[in-house]
Amino acid sequence: MVHKMRDLDQGYDYEVLNKKTKALRKHRFLDPDVDIKVKGKRGHRYCWPVIGLLIIAWILFLLLWLYTRSKGIHMFAVTHVKTYNPVTLVRIPAELANKNGAFCLDGTVPSYYFRKGKDRSQRSWVVHLEGGGWCWDLADCYNRSFSALGSSAAQYLPPHRELQGILSDCPHVNPDFHDWNVAHVNYCDGAAFSGNVPYPVDYTNQTLYFRGALVLNLVINFLVQSGGMGDADRIILSGGSAGASAVVLHIDHIKTLLPDGIPLHGLVDAGLFLDAKNMTNFDHFRICTQRVYNIQQVWGSLNEACVKDQPQDMRWKCFFSEYAYKYVQSPTFYMNTAYDRWQLWFILEMHCHPTECPEQLSFMMDFHQKFINFAKEVRNQSEKNGMFISSCYDHSQGLSDKPYQRYKVDGKTLQEAFGDWYFERVPEGSSFYFDCEDSYDCNPTCDWSLEFYKNSTKRLKASNKCVL
Fold it and tell me: Is residue 336 within a helix (H) or strand (E), and if so which, with residue range?
Protein backbone atom coordinates (compact mmCIF):
# COMPACT_ATOMS: atom_id res chain seq x y z
CA MET A 1 0.00 0.00 0.00
CA VAL A 2 1.27 3.40 -0.96
CA HIS A 3 0.97 6.14 1.68
CA LYS A 4 1.06 9.78 0.65
CA MET A 5 2.45 12.55 2.88
CA ARG A 6 0.10 15.39 3.72
CA ASP A 7 0.74 18.89 4.86
CA LEU A 8 0.19 19.42 8.58
CA ASP A 9 -2.78 21.69 8.00
CA GLN A 10 -4.52 19.31 5.60
CA GLY A 11 -7.37 17.09 6.60
CA TYR A 12 -8.48 19.05 9.72
CA ASP A 13 -11.85 20.69 10.19
CA TYR A 14 -10.95 23.80 12.21
CA GLU A 15 -14.56 24.78 12.71
CA VAL A 16 -15.22 21.48 14.52
CA LEU A 17 -12.06 21.86 16.63
CA ASN A 18 -13.05 25.37 17.68
CA LYS A 19 -16.48 24.18 18.78
CA LYS A 20 -14.86 21.42 20.89
CA THR A 21 -12.45 23.86 22.49
CA LYS A 22 -15.27 26.25 23.43
CA ALA A 23 -17.26 23.38 24.86
CA LEU A 24 -14.25 22.31 26.95
CA ARG A 25 -13.76 25.84 28.31
CA LYS A 26 -17.46 26.07 29.14
CA HIS A 27 -17.18 22.75 30.99
CA ARG A 28 -14.34 24.22 33.07
CA PHE A 29 -16.33 27.40 33.86
CA LEU A 30 -14.22 29.56 31.60
CA ASP A 31 -15.38 32.21 29.20
CA PRO A 32 -15.80 30.37 25.87
CA ASP A 33 -15.18 33.58 23.90
CA VAL A 34 -11.78 34.31 25.42
CA ASP A 35 -8.89 32.84 23.53
CA ILE A 36 -6.74 30.27 25.28
CA LYS A 37 -3.27 31.61 25.96
CA VAL A 38 -0.13 29.78 26.85
CA LYS A 39 0.11 29.57 30.67
CA GLY A 40 3.80 29.03 30.91
CA LYS A 41 4.91 32.61 30.32
CA ARG A 42 2.43 34.08 32.84
CA GLY A 43 4.18 32.17 35.74
CA HIS A 44 7.54 33.78 35.02
CA ARG A 45 6.24 37.12 36.31
CA TYR A 46 6.10 35.66 39.87
CA CYS A 47 9.30 33.59 39.84
CA TRP A 48 11.91 36.32 40.29
CA PRO A 49 10.21 38.14 43.20
CA VAL A 50 9.92 34.84 45.10
CA ILE A 51 13.56 34.01 44.42
CA GLY A 52 14.53 37.52 45.60
CA LEU A 53 12.62 37.12 48.86
CA LEU A 54 14.27 33.75 49.48
CA ILE A 55 17.72 35.29 48.94
CA ILE A 56 16.95 38.14 51.36
CA ALA A 57 15.67 35.66 53.98
CA TRP A 58 18.81 33.59 53.62
CA ILE A 59 21.06 36.65 54.02
CA LEU A 60 19.16 37.73 57.17
CA PHE A 61 19.45 34.22 58.62
CA LEU A 62 23.18 34.19 57.89
CA LEU A 63 23.69 37.58 59.56
CA LEU A 64 21.70 36.45 62.60
CA TRP A 65 23.74 33.26 62.82
CA LEU A 66 27.03 35.19 62.62
CA TYR A 67 25.83 37.62 65.31
CA THR A 68 24.78 34.89 67.75
CA ARG A 69 28.03 33.02 67.20
CA SER A 70 30.00 36.18 67.99
CA LYS A 71 28.06 36.45 71.25
CA GLY A 72 28.73 32.84 72.13
CA ILE A 73 25.05 31.94 71.74
CA HIS A 74 23.87 28.83 69.98
CA MET A 75 20.67 29.64 68.12
CA PHE A 76 19.16 26.21 68.61
CA ALA A 77 20.62 25.44 72.02
CA VAL A 78 18.34 24.77 74.95
CA THR A 79 19.44 27.26 77.58
CA HIS A 80 17.16 26.01 80.31
CA VAL A 81 15.46 22.68 80.55
CA LYS A 82 13.44 21.82 83.61
CA THR A 83 15.08 19.21 85.75
CA TYR A 84 13.77 15.72 85.27
CA ASN A 85 13.88 14.97 89.00
CA PRO A 86 13.45 17.90 91.41
CA VAL A 87 15.28 17.59 94.72
CA THR A 88 13.29 16.52 97.79
CA LEU A 89 13.36 18.17 101.21
CA VAL A 90 14.88 16.15 104.07
CA ARG A 91 14.71 17.38 107.67
CA ILE A 92 17.17 16.11 110.25
CA PRO A 93 15.31 14.12 112.94
CA ALA A 94 14.45 16.31 115.94
CA GLU A 95 16.14 13.97 118.44
CA LEU A 96 19.46 14.34 116.58
CA ALA A 97 19.10 18.12 116.42
CA ASN A 98 18.33 18.29 120.13
CA LYS A 99 21.19 15.97 121.03
CA ASN A 100 23.69 18.05 119.05
CA GLY A 101 22.20 21.46 119.81
CA ALA A 102 22.03 22.19 116.08
CA PHE A 103 19.20 24.58 115.19
CA CYS A 104 18.30 27.20 112.62
CA LEU A 105 17.85 30.78 113.77
CA ASP A 106 14.26 30.12 114.85
CA GLY A 107 15.00 26.82 116.61
CA THR A 108 13.79 24.52 113.83
CA VAL A 109 15.88 21.53 112.74
CA PRO A 110 18.55 21.65 110.01
CA SER A 111 17.51 20.45 106.55
CA TYR A 112 18.74 19.75 103.05
CA TYR A 113 17.34 18.91 99.63
CA PHE A 114 18.37 15.59 98.13
CA ARG A 115 18.38 13.87 94.75
CA LYS A 116 19.76 10.37 94.41
CA GLY A 117 22.48 9.62 91.88
CA LYS A 118 22.00 7.05 89.18
CA ASP A 119 23.78 4.59 86.94
CA ARG A 120 27.57 4.82 87.14
CA SER A 121 27.51 7.83 89.50
CA GLN A 122 25.57 6.37 92.43
CA ARG A 123 28.61 6.84 94.68
CA SER A 124 29.50 10.33 93.45
CA TRP A 125 28.29 13.33 95.48
CA VAL A 126 27.91 17.08 95.21
CA VAL A 127 27.23 18.65 98.62
CA HIS A 128 26.20 22.24 98.08
CA LEU A 129 26.18 24.94 100.77
CA GLU A 130 23.43 27.44 100.01
CA GLY A 131 24.18 31.16 100.05
CA GLY A 132 22.09 34.17 100.92
CA GLY A 133 24.15 36.95 102.48
CA TRP A 134 24.48 37.55 106.20
CA CYS A 135 22.26 38.89 108.95
CA TRP A 136 24.04 41.99 110.19
CA ASP A 137 22.57 42.53 113.66
CA LEU A 138 20.02 41.08 116.06
CA ALA A 139 17.10 42.84 114.38
CA ASP A 140 18.18 41.58 110.99
CA CYS A 141 18.62 38.01 112.29
CA TYR A 142 15.18 38.25 113.94
CA ASN A 143 13.59 39.18 110.60
CA ARG A 144 15.56 36.48 108.85
CA SER A 145 14.24 33.82 111.26
CA PHE A 146 10.83 34.22 109.57
CA SER A 147 12.16 33.13 106.17
CA ALA A 148 13.71 30.19 104.33
CA LEU A 149 17.14 31.62 105.23
CA GLY A 150 16.49 31.24 108.95
CA SER A 151 14.01 28.42 109.32
CA SER A 152 13.11 24.96 108.03
CA ALA A 153 9.41 25.37 108.78
CA ALA A 154 6.97 24.08 106.16
CA GLN A 155 5.63 27.53 105.32
CA TYR A 156 9.10 28.58 104.14
CA LEU A 157 10.56 25.49 102.50
CA PRO A 158 8.62 23.68 99.75
CA PRO A 159 8.82 19.88 99.67
CA HIS A 160 10.50 19.97 96.26
CA ARG A 161 12.50 22.45 94.22
CA GLU A 162 14.44 22.57 90.98
CA LEU A 163 18.13 23.28 90.69
CA GLN A 164 20.19 24.59 87.80
CA GLY A 165 23.78 24.86 86.63
CA ILE A 166 26.26 22.56 88.37
CA LEU A 167 23.34 21.08 90.37
CA SER A 168 21.09 20.38 87.38
CA ASP A 169 20.23 16.80 86.42
CA CYS A 170 19.77 17.77 82.78
CA PRO A 171 22.59 16.18 80.73
CA HIS A 172 22.45 18.99 78.14
CA VAL A 173 23.12 21.60 80.82
CA ASN A 174 25.37 19.61 83.13
CA PRO A 175 26.94 16.74 81.17
CA ASP A 176 29.64 15.89 83.72
CA PHE A 177 27.65 15.85 86.98
CA HIS A 178 23.96 15.51 86.06
CA ASP A 179 23.68 11.97 87.43
CA TRP A 180 25.49 12.55 90.74
CA ASN A 181 23.90 12.52 94.19
CA VAL A 182 23.06 16.08 95.22
CA ALA A 183 22.66 17.29 98.80
CA HIS A 184 21.71 20.98 98.88
CA VAL A 185 22.31 22.11 102.49
CA ASN A 186 19.85 24.84 103.43
CA TYR A 187 21.42 28.00 104.84
CA CYS A 188 19.71 29.05 108.06
CA ASP A 189 22.17 30.78 110.41
CA GLY A 190 23.05 34.01 108.59
CA ALA A 191 26.80 33.66 109.25
CA ALA A 192 28.11 31.42 106.46
CA PHE A 193 27.56 28.21 108.49
CA SER A 194 29.88 29.61 111.16
CA GLY A 195 27.61 30.70 114.02
CA ASN A 196 28.91 29.25 117.29
CA VAL A 197 27.02 30.74 120.25
CA PRO A 198 26.43 27.98 122.85
CA TYR A 199 23.38 29.61 124.42
CA PRO A 200 20.09 30.87 122.96
CA VAL A 201 19.67 34.61 122.48
CA ASP A 202 16.38 36.33 123.25
CA TYR A 203 15.27 39.20 121.07
CA THR A 204 11.80 40.76 121.44
CA ASN A 205 9.43 37.78 121.48
CA GLN A 206 11.74 35.33 119.68
CA THR A 207 14.54 33.03 120.82
CA LEU A 208 17.40 33.00 118.32
CA TYR A 209 20.04 30.30 117.83
CA PHE A 210 23.40 31.09 116.28
CA ARG A 211 24.51 27.50 115.60
CA GLY A 212 25.52 27.40 111.94
CA ALA A 213 28.73 25.48 112.61
CA LEU A 214 26.81 22.79 114.50
CA VAL A 215 24.19 22.70 111.73
CA LEU A 216 26.87 22.02 109.13
CA ASN A 217 28.53 19.34 111.27
CA LEU A 218 25.23 17.55 111.90
CA VAL A 219 24.14 17.54 108.26
CA ILE A 220 27.50 16.18 107.06
CA ASN A 221 27.52 13.50 109.79
CA PHE A 222 23.92 12.54 108.98
CA LEU A 223 24.73 12.21 105.27
CA VAL A 224 27.73 10.02 106.07
CA GLN A 225 26.03 7.81 108.66
CA SER A 226 22.46 7.64 107.36
CA GLY A 227 22.30 9.24 103.92
CA GLY A 228 24.65 6.94 101.99
CA MET A 229 27.59 9.33 101.68
CA GLY A 230 29.75 7.06 103.81
CA ASP A 231 30.11 4.83 100.73
CA ALA A 232 31.04 7.71 98.42
CA ASP A 233 33.99 7.32 96.10
CA ARG A 234 34.28 11.09 95.48
CA ILE A 235 32.73 14.28 96.84
CA ILE A 236 32.58 17.88 95.64
CA LEU A 237 31.81 20.49 98.31
CA SER A 238 30.35 23.46 96.46
CA GLY A 239 28.84 26.71 97.63
CA GLY A 240 27.40 29.93 96.24
CA SER A 241 27.98 33.43 97.62
CA ALA A 242 27.99 33.20 101.45
CA GLY A 243 27.88 29.42 100.99
CA ALA A 244 31.00 29.67 98.82
CA SER A 245 32.67 31.65 101.58
CA ALA A 246 31.71 28.76 103.90
CA VAL A 247 33.52 26.33 101.58
CA VAL A 248 36.72 28.35 102.00
CA LEU A 249 36.24 28.52 105.77
CA HIS A 250 35.26 24.90 106.43
CA ILE A 251 36.29 22.51 103.67
CA ASP A 252 39.33 21.14 105.46
CA HIS A 253 37.31 20.61 108.65
CA ILE A 254 34.63 18.76 106.66
CA LYS A 255 37.37 16.54 105.27
CA THR A 256 37.96 15.28 108.83
CA LEU A 257 34.29 14.24 109.12
CA LEU A 258 34.50 11.92 106.10
CA PRO A 259 35.73 8.33 106.01
CA ASP A 260 39.40 8.07 105.14
CA GLY A 261 40.27 7.84 101.48
CA ILE A 262 37.31 9.74 99.98
CA PRO A 263 38.66 12.46 97.65
CA LEU A 264 37.18 15.88 98.45
CA HIS A 265 37.32 18.85 96.06
CA GLY A 266 36.00 22.35 96.61
CA LEU A 267 33.99 24.58 94.28
CA VAL A 268 33.83 28.23 95.38
CA ASP A 269 31.24 30.12 93.32
CA ALA A 270 31.23 33.88 94.02
CA GLY A 271 32.89 33.50 97.42
CA LEU A 272 35.98 35.67 96.92
CA PHE A 273 34.75 38.73 98.81
CA LEU A 274 37.13 41.67 99.00
CA ASP A 275 37.94 43.44 102.23
CA ALA A 276 37.67 46.78 100.42
CA LYS A 277 36.49 50.33 101.08
CA ASN A 278 33.43 51.88 99.46
CA MET A 279 33.47 54.92 97.17
CA THR A 280 33.64 57.25 100.17
CA ASN A 281 36.79 55.47 101.37
CA PHE A 282 34.94 53.94 104.33
CA ASP A 283 35.38 50.34 105.57
CA HIS A 284 31.65 49.69 105.58
CA PHE A 285 31.79 45.99 104.64
CA ARG A 286 34.64 45.22 107.05
CA ILE A 287 32.85 46.77 110.02
CA CYS A 288 29.61 44.97 109.16
CA THR A 289 31.37 41.61 108.85
CA GLN A 290 33.22 42.17 112.11
CA ARG A 291 29.85 42.72 113.76
CA VAL A 292 28.59 39.35 112.48
CA TYR A 293 31.84 37.80 113.71
CA ASN A 294 31.21 39.12 117.22
CA ILE A 295 27.44 38.58 117.48
CA GLN A 296 27.68 34.96 116.33
CA GLN A 297 31.05 34.22 118.00
CA VAL A 298 32.37 32.56 114.89
CA TRP A 299 36.00 32.46 116.02
CA GLY A 300 35.47 29.00 117.53
CA SER A 301 34.53 27.47 114.17
CA LEU A 302 37.21 28.97 111.91
CA ASN A 303 40.40 27.45 110.53
CA GLU A 304 42.62 26.80 113.53
CA ALA A 305 45.87 27.50 111.68
CA CYS A 306 44.53 30.85 110.47
CA VAL A 307 43.30 31.86 113.94
CA LYS A 308 46.62 30.86 115.49
CA ASP A 309 48.55 33.06 113.05
CA GLN A 310 46.57 36.21 113.87
CA PRO A 311 46.92 38.56 116.84
CA GLN A 312 43.91 38.52 119.14
CA ASP A 313 42.43 41.69 117.65
CA MET A 314 42.94 40.51 114.06
CA ARG A 315 41.36 37.07 114.21
CA TRP A 316 38.30 38.42 112.42
CA LYS A 317 40.39 38.15 109.25
CA CYS A 318 39.87 34.38 109.28
CA PHE A 319 36.16 35.07 108.64
CA PHE A 320 37.10 36.72 105.31
CA SER A 321 37.81 34.45 102.36
CA GLU A 322 40.37 37.05 101.21
CA TYR A 323 42.60 35.98 104.11
CA ALA A 324 41.35 32.46 104.88
CA TYR A 325 42.01 31.02 101.39
CA LYS A 326 45.74 30.81 102.16
CA TYR A 327 45.06 28.01 104.66
CA VAL A 328 42.91 25.81 102.42
CA GLN A 329 44.61 22.47 101.74
CA SER A 330 41.91 20.73 99.70
CA PRO A 331 42.07 21.16 95.88
CA THR A 332 39.63 23.93 95.01
CA PHE A 333 38.20 25.54 91.89
CA TYR A 334 37.30 29.24 92.22
CA MET A 335 34.74 30.80 89.90
CA ASN A 336 33.96 34.48 90.16
CA THR A 337 33.42 37.57 88.09
CA ALA A 338 35.76 40.52 88.46
CA TYR A 339 32.64 42.73 88.33
CA ASP A 340 30.66 40.80 90.93
CA ARG A 341 27.35 42.63 91.15
CA TRP A 342 26.84 41.85 94.86
CA GLN A 343 30.24 43.30 95.70
CA LEU A 344 29.81 46.35 93.49
CA TRP A 345 26.43 47.01 95.10
CA PHE A 346 27.15 46.28 98.79
CA ILE A 347 30.93 46.70 99.17
CA LEU A 348 31.77 49.44 96.69
CA GLU A 349 28.18 50.78 97.02
CA MET A 350 27.88 51.64 93.34
CA HIS A 351 24.16 51.62 92.54
CA CYS A 352 24.09 52.60 88.86
CA HIS A 353 25.02 51.31 85.45
CA PRO A 354 28.35 52.84 84.32
CA THR A 355 26.63 54.49 81.34
CA GLU A 356 24.27 56.26 83.75
CA CYS A 357 27.01 57.49 86.09
CA PRO A 358 30.27 57.83 84.15
CA GLU A 359 31.77 59.79 87.03
CA GLN A 360 31.75 56.55 89.08
CA LEU A 361 33.38 54.42 86.40
CA SER A 362 36.89 55.02 87.77
CA PHE A 363 35.81 53.60 91.17
CA MET A 364 34.48 50.49 89.49
CA MET A 365 37.63 49.99 87.46
CA ASP A 366 39.82 50.45 90.55
CA PHE A 367 37.72 47.83 92.35
CA HIS A 368 38.09 45.54 89.35
CA GLN A 369 41.87 45.90 89.45
CA LYS A 370 41.97 45.12 93.16
CA PHE A 371 39.95 41.99 92.54
CA ILE A 372 42.20 40.87 89.67
CA ASN A 373 45.28 41.35 91.85
CA PHE A 374 43.65 39.33 94.63
CA ALA A 375 42.54 36.57 92.22
CA LYS A 376 46.09 36.26 90.91
CA GLU A 377 47.33 35.78 94.47
CA VAL A 378 44.81 32.96 94.89
CA ARG A 379 45.92 31.56 91.55
CA ASN A 380 49.53 31.41 92.75
CA GLN A 381 48.64 29.46 95.89
CA SER A 382 48.69 26.03 94.24
CA GLU A 383 48.95 24.49 90.79
CA LYS A 384 46.42 21.84 91.81
CA ASN A 385 43.66 24.46 92.01
CA GLY A 386 41.63 26.00 89.17
CA MET A 387 40.02 29.35 88.48
CA PHE A 388 37.52 30.98 86.12
CA ILE A 389 37.35 34.79 86.34
CA SER A 390 34.92 36.40 83.92
CA SER A 391 34.19 40.09 83.35
CA CYS A 392 30.40 39.69 83.45
CA TYR A 393 28.03 41.65 85.66
CA ASP A 394 26.81 38.64 87.61
CA HIS A 395 26.99 36.66 90.87
CA SER A 396 27.04 32.89 91.47
CA GLN A 397 27.53 32.03 87.80
CA GLY A 398 27.55 28.27 88.31
CA LEU A 399 24.04 28.03 89.77
CA SER A 400 22.08 29.20 86.72
CA ASP A 401 21.92 27.43 83.37
CA LYS A 402 22.61 30.41 81.14
CA PRO A 403 25.84 31.69 82.74
CA TYR A 404 27.04 28.13 83.31
CA GLN A 405 26.66 27.35 79.60
CA ARG A 406 27.13 30.73 77.95
CA TYR A 407 29.90 32.76 79.57
CA LYS A 408 33.24 32.06 77.93
CA VAL A 409 36.79 32.90 78.92
CA ASP A 410 39.67 31.87 76.66
CA GLY A 411 37.17 30.04 74.48
CA LYS A 412 35.78 27.82 77.27
CA THR A 413 32.48 27.92 79.07
CA LEU A 414 32.33 27.69 82.83
CA GLN A 415 30.86 24.20 82.55
CA GLU A 416 33.74 23.06 80.32
CA ALA A 417 36.44 24.70 82.43
CA PHE A 418 35.29 23.15 85.71
CA GLY A 419 34.70 19.71 84.20
CA ASP A 420 38.13 19.71 82.53
CA TRP A 421 39.78 20.65 85.83
CA TYR A 422 37.92 18.12 87.96
CA PHE A 423 38.35 15.15 85.63
CA GLU A 424 41.95 16.14 84.81
CA ARG A 425 41.24 16.43 81.10
CA VAL A 426 43.87 19.17 80.97
CA PRO A 427 47.34 19.19 82.57
CA GLU A 428 47.68 20.34 86.17
CA GLY A 429 48.29 24.07 86.40
CA SER A 430 46.50 24.91 83.15
CA SER A 431 42.98 25.46 84.54
CA PHE A 432 43.30 29.16 85.27
CA TYR A 433 41.13 31.33 83.05
CA PHE A 434 41.31 35.13 83.31
CA ASP A 435 39.06 37.31 81.16
CA CYS A 436 39.94 40.33 79.05
CA GLU A 437 40.67 43.61 80.86
CA ASP A 438 40.39 46.14 78.00
CA SER A 439 37.06 47.48 79.26
CA TYR A 440 34.26 46.29 81.51
CA ASP A 441 32.22 45.09 78.50
CA CYS A 442 35.09 43.50 76.54
CA ASN A 443 33.65 39.97 76.67
CA PRO A 444 30.90 39.53 74.03
CA THR A 445 29.38 36.56 75.90
CA CYS A 446 28.55 38.83 78.87
CA ASP A 447 25.46 41.01 78.98
CA TRP A 448 26.17 44.57 80.07
CA SER A 449 23.00 46.03 78.61
CA LEU A 450 21.04 48.53 80.67
CA GLU A 451 18.00 46.25 80.53
CA PHE A 452 19.94 43.31 81.99
CA TYR A 453 21.42 45.56 84.67
CA LYS A 454 18.01 46.78 85.78
CA ASN A 455 16.55 43.29 85.87
CA SER A 456 19.48 41.83 87.78
CA THR A 457 19.58 44.59 90.41
CA LYS A 458 15.92 44.29 91.42
CA ARG A 459 16.82 41.59 93.92
CA LEU A 460 19.77 43.60 95.23
CA LYS A 461 17.50 46.55 95.95
CA ALA A 462 15.22 44.27 97.95
CA SER A 463 18.07 42.65 99.91
CA ASN A 464 18.96 43.52 103.46
CA LYS A 465 21.65 46.15 103.81
CA CYS A 466 24.00 46.54 106.75
CA VAL A 467 23.14 49.80 108.48
CA LEU A 468 25.78 51.30 110.77
Answer: strand 332-337
